[in-house]
Automatic annotation (TrEMBL):
Protein name, per record: GMC oxidoreductase-like protein
Classification via InterPro entries: FAD/NAD-bd_sf, GMC_OxRdtase, GMC_OxRdtase_N, GMC_OxRtase_C
Keywords: FAD, Flavoprotein
Keyword Flavoprotein assigned: yes
Occurrences of domain Glucose-methanol-choline oxidoreductase N-terminal (ranges): 264-278
Similarity comment text for this entry: Belongs to the GMC oxidoreductase family.
Highest taxon of the lineage: Eukaryota
SUPFAM superfamilies: FAD-linked reductases, C-terminal domain (SSF54373), FAD/NAD(P)-binding domain (SSF51905)
Presence of the UniProt keyword Flavoprotein in the record: yes
Binding site for substrate: 540
GO MF term set: flavin adenine dinucleotide binding; oxidoreductase activity, acting on CH-OH group of donors
Amino acid sequence: MMAPRTFSNPTYQCVETVLVVEYGNVEYAPGSFDPPVNWYGPVSFQSASLWVFRSLPNPEYNNLTALTFAGQVVGGSSAVNGQFFDRPSRFDLDAWTQLGISSDWNWRGLFPYFKKSTKFTAPSPQVAQQYNYTWDLSSYGGTTPIHSSFPPFQWADNQVVLNGWKELGVRRRQDCAGGDKEGLCAVPTSGHPVTAHRSHAGLGHYADVVGTRSNFDLLVRHQAVRVVYPNGANSSPPILDVRSLTSNTRFNITANAEVVLSAGAFHTPTVLLRSGIGAANVLATAGIPQVIELPGVGANLQDHPGSTGVSWNCMSTGASPSCKPFLLTRLLLDTKPGNWAPMPEQMEDPAFKADATTAWNEVPARGPYTMALGNQAIYISLPNTTPNYPAIIRKILKQTADGSAASFLPPDYRENAALVKGYKDQLLAMAKLLLNPKVPNLETPWSTGYSTAAILLHPLSRGTVRLNLTDHLAQPIVDTRHGSNPVDFDMQLANVRWSRRLLDTPTMQRYGAVEIAPGGNVQSDAELLEYIKSAATLSYQHPCCTAALGPKNRGGVVDDKLRVHGAKGLRVVDISVLPLVISAHTSSTAYALGEKVRCSNA
């Protein structure tokens, strides 16, 4: 998606004339758990139009591939994501200054735009008391039509796991949106507070203004192919080369002020590479004349990998080996009449599902369909996950000291001095970050069920996004390269070992929890590592960082105003500009980025 914009003058009070070029179309964007979906069962997924990406096989993970989705619709990935609407840790953003990035991008510099970019609506006192929701209104305050709210529902067994985390010593935080989130968090979802429908950019920033703004135009079903500088990259702004998806014809669009790329972690570097902006060797391989040497384009790919931390069954004396009947019975007996008590298996019961659908259509909406995929998670730091964290940090520092860090980089750029220097700086920043007991490195979101995820929030491995050499207009080649830096497995082992402790808590023992994965016979590091490699989820849908903010001599692609280095009148505003993957799902950060640069001087 690209938007040429016109600014009045350097006063930062801007008047914009915007044309958005969009590959997809205007669509209804259902939520991640809207009727008629079953939580379990044959009908388990619905979505607006999207791209499906399969990475190249990851050798270190037994050749598993990463499966990633991206929105192919007005509103982008905000229209297809899981609606989990958390923010990063303040320390994530503060670490960027160690990479040569202006302090304007630290937590203090970006926090006002987190507040501005969304409108938070607090739950009713009854819902807040029932589900122990807490928040700090000083973390919010926006009035935009992008909504966040707490769902008025939780599955009954949610409390079981929550109690287990508390017994492990995880403290519940009053608020996790203000930059401090190590602990147990209730997280708002990107849902409307009354209807519980998905709130997304295509609805809030397009549908709410269509027909009311004469200075806004939307061109759907068109592919932004490349930008062209007829008179050199110092001329401003570039021409946009566009392809119609209906007629396959190509034409140019002329911008008066600038072109803004907002195509995401996979497609933004693809457009730049097709424009001749990238590493010389990468462009030469693709047969594209180089316009600007920027080796960071399509480099530095990061995402959150993970695996099942622990899964279990439940038994009690004289009970069935299956925990479902036993646990359901206990929970139903403890639930007051009139509350939504059954766990999501009940969605397969026609009467229950019909009642849930009726509740969803009420005003305000209620019942299980209001909750998206869940809104609670724990965030645990490396020092609070393993006593062996100093040894892990020493391994990272050793890579920077002995020069071995470069050997873990992708072969096609490990000889590039700027990228090697940038990666070394990243490792030094990460070592300091991971030492901090307030910085989350393990995330486990949950809502119901019999397993927990162990998501690695600060992986050290780096991948690439490259053009398809046989068809430059086709979807790019994604190589996540998870596990290429072996320290990632040290952190994964620590995360899974810590997660297994959940089943030793009094609450889980009271329900007779018995581990089924990794399994009681999996104890050594070697055995556990093989389990992690074979049962991994290699993308939790947070790809980023492929057109990174930072100095050019450290592999940066955009400057502190998100302007592409050396390319006049060209800016990138999407999640590809993050230098490091954050300890959060990425949608709220994408909105904050947009607000921060919306009226900045070109």
